[in-house]
């Protein structure tokens, strides 16, 4: 049908544009966070782009339902403003006739969201944990940024260098570390990392500096001058990455069966269902009343999305605490939202108010 093809084409373009905008926001927000962590020495500069790509992949199954929601809303909203819906109604094509193309369009996107929810997002979460685990094994000096103090080992060791070249050679080095309850401060004019050929251990060779040992607030300090002083750079030795619940496979979630696993499983199920629920609300709320302005339906759509997303968060919390049986999960919420959408669609299709006016309720 020509109308259906026109809807698919326009809705796809608008949804694609919204997705691109949301991706740009996510990328720049994530880039600022990861660059800040790298500057503070919390992450290695070499893994910033990898972590950014994995975070974007993890967010994709959340961005697509939102993009589809507003894509359908803006597409049909334009049809209402340009009186195309009025012409279609005069030709016998009402709102219910558009239900089929809207749901088919949602189905195509729900398949992509489902693949992301059950496979791509858990994979990206596991890879994120693995990259962070490997980054934690890198010695602190490799994550240093010139001119910035970098903490490690929970603040027990602090590094600083004024300048550092590509080979790792440093100038004006400062190291503060806690040893047996006492703070030791090491300063050096220069320093460079190297690897012991016999043991394979990594060291930082410092030259022409001073060592200050003592307790803060006391006058008893040991001061030593040195020409060469080697500091061992011990990487963190972690046996295996601490896998988060989001990174577990579907089988692992079902086998685990505790509150967190049940909540995560139902959240993965919910994501493709959200696509259909939001598509129905977009069909209902796309109607534009010239007397109320173009943005009236947009505000209502944002309100519906916020309510739905907050209820989903509440449902997950109840599942984690075991206050909702696993068999019920989040289905009660989806069913309630679908019933409300069906009622609103029925009201809209028959040109009735979506909600009864207060005056009419008062007369009753």
Automatic annotation (TrEMBL):
UniProt-annotated location(s): Cell inner membrane
One GO term describing the cellular component: ATP-binding cassette (ABC) transporter complex
Biological processes, Gene Ontology terms: lipopolysaccharide transport; transmembrane transport
Keyword Acyltransferase: no
Keyword Manganese applies: no
Source organism, top-level taxon: Bacteria
Source organism per UniProt: Candidatus Muproteobacteria bacterium RBG_16_64_10
Full protein name: Lipopolysaccharide export system permease protein LptF
PANTHER family in UniProt: LIPOPOLYSACCHARIDE EXPORT SYSTEM PERMEASE PROTEIN LPTF, SLR0882 PROTEIN-RELATED
Keywords: Cell inner membrane, Cell membrane, Membrane, Transmembrane, Transmembrane helix, Transport
Topology with respect to the bilayer: Multi-pass membrane protein
Residues annotated as signal peptide: none
TM annotation in the entry: 12-35, 62-80, 101-120, 269-286, 298-318, 324-345
